Amino acid sequence: MKKRTPVQTIMTKNVITLNLSDDLMMAEKLFKENDIRHIPVVSGKSIVGMLSYTDLLRISFADAIDEDESDVDTVVYNMFTIEQVMAKNLVTVSPSNTIKEVAEILSKKEFHALPVIEEGELKGIVTTTDLIYYLLEQYN
After folding, report:
1. Of 69, 73, 124, 138, which residue is most buried, by most CB within 10 angstroms?
2. 114 exposure class (CB count in 10 Å sphere: 0-12, 13-18, 19+)
3. Residue 8 neighbours by CB distance under 10 Å
4. pTM summary value
């Protein structure tokens, strides 16, 4: 296994993002259409937060009641903004951080994605899934 491999080799580079002006219905649509679980929230080229699918599930009551799920989600989602729901105090890494360094951070924290930042600009995102795929490749 290569010990100094930079995270830029496994990160997602074409990142789907949200703006603070987007709403939570848009976020849910992006999560479902793209089969992803984390979306960086940006202002221009700078990252200001991270929204996870789990964040949406925490505020949704759809699973707890028998009414039409989409109607309930719409009501709940209209009660909150992306800024109210997203994580704000982000841990970030640079493209040159090693995969080992990223794995150490993710293994000690309660989140599963890290924005990859270079010179204040979002360059990518790396997730625990990316790390698992990388590990599996080492056994081929």
Report:
1. 124
2. buried
3. 18
4. 0.86
Does 1 reside within a domain? no
What is the SS3 string spanning 105-123? HHHHCCCCEEEEEECCEEE
Query: CATH no. for residue 125?
Result: 3.10.580.10
Residues present in the chain in total: 140
Count of alpha carbons within 13 angstroms of residue 130, beta-carbon side? 24
Q: Copy the structure tokens of residue 139.
A: 């056994």
Q: Is residue 67 over pLDDT 70?
A: no
Does residue 3 contact residue 100 with C-beta atoms inside 8 Å?
A: yes
Instruction: Tell whether 43 is covered by a domain.
Output: yes
Q: What are phi and psi of 79, to 5 degrees?
A: -85, -15
The answer to whether position 61 is within a domain reads yes
